[in-house]
Amino acid sequence: MNSEADDYSSNTKRLHFLLVPLMEQGHMIPMIDLARLLATRDILVTFATTPVNLSRIQPIVDRAAASALPIRFVELHFPVADVGLPDGCESVDLLPSTELILPFLNALPLLRDPLEAHLRISDPFGWPKPVCLISDNQQHWTADVARCLNIPRLIFHGPSCFFLYCNLLINRHRAELEAALEASSGGSIMLPDLPHPIRVSNREVSAVFSSDPDWSKYMETIRVAEESADGVLVNSFVELEPWYFERYGEATGKPVWPVGPLSLYKEEIEVKAARGRVSSIDNNLLFQWLDKQVVGSVVLVSFGSVIRNTMAQLVELGHGLEASGRPFIWVVKEVAERQVPGSEWVAEFEKRVEGRGIMIRGWAPQAAILGHEAVGGFVTHCGWNSMLEAVAMGVVMATWPHLYDQFLNELLAVEVLKIGVVVAVEEPKMFGAEKGDEVVVKVSRGDVERIVERLMVGGKEGEERRERAKELRDKARTAMEEGGSSWKGLQDVINYVSERQKIL
């Protein structure tokens, strides 16, 4: 038998997992890492997404091919124009308006036909049909696909177990929480059934459920689909939130497997820098500059792929960073995308801080930056990917949430883990961007300067925060190493699917 025939025979005996991520950078990136981790365990992996999203991760596709990892990247046609979305808007962060988020999410089931068409094609390399479907929880339509294939469907959850369990409690106690909040006249109330004294205000509660009937209908669809899932994968590790892993599993009655931090999939700088998209800056120049900075002295400021600040807020943020006197890296995607008319101010600002500050106009290799020893603090929107990357690298955070799970993530960082300081933003806007031409300032330059000082120094409390962050970093690395809790979690997923396959 020749080598090609040997490969064909070998493939037919291997487990084949089908992964369907949500098309949004914060959801795509960890699922790509998950795909690569599964492939290193001798699992055949099909990663299905749209053409635009596939082009954005081309360096990862090329690297997977060069390393002979058994991953196939499949294009699924997404007819955005048919549902009134602008051409090419195949990811949440590409939408020109937050008003299009719900239409985008409601259009996701249009991916079902192209996915099923792909699955009907006979495979020339002997790959068997998938024995497991892992989908983002937002891809609710995959429940029907798994049912037709008669295979288990596992949900991949981007947020923490802390958020998932608090989210469950808020929905469970919705009426009494709303009544208590109304009685508190805009104050905060204690969230019940938690081991930590967690107080929530209207922003945390309203971020979980919306009064908009269209949003409520969508969230109910997600809830029903989640109930039919066979298990849950969470991009976190047990040692970070042990009580919440246990309670969330009990509350759902499903196996809940830790598989993170997935950002620790590879330590090589070039691999970390390629996560998500091609960097908008020359990485060699960026890391040469970082190499010249004092250990722990640099502040990273970044708000993820979806959040957009107004020009007025960007100006205040810039002045605050300048006044702090500290070296910084600031990701300013709003100007690169022309979401705000401020390129002239940014150019002038860059000249003033030349040598001490670097501005990245677009996509930044965030995980790689956080991993550099010069970085000592992170001003973040509290997206779970960003927070977990900071945890994995032992970096303390200044928390500046804007939407959805970010408010509860802030409470985890500040109240439970005690590795964050609060920026204290008043009345953050729901579901994303401010209008770029609005004169909206929610954090003044003086507040920015003070919070940076507290983040980077902070006296005895600051030292304790940094020490806790380092301890969590070590636990995160241990969790991902062979025999660790997340390493075992992924192996348990594979064993679960293997056993199910024997029964079918």
UniProtKB/TrEMBL annotation:
One of its GO terms (molecular function) is UDP-glucosyltransferase activity. Belongs to the UDP-glycosyltransferase family. InterPro entries: Glyco_transf_N, UDP_glucos_trans. Keywords: Transferase. Residues 18-262 form the Glycosyltransferase N-terminal domain. This is UDP-glycosyltransferase 73E1-like isoform X1. PANTHER family: GLYCOSYLTRANSFERASE, UDP-GLYCOSYLTRANSFERASE 73C3-RELATED. It comes from Cymbidium sinense.
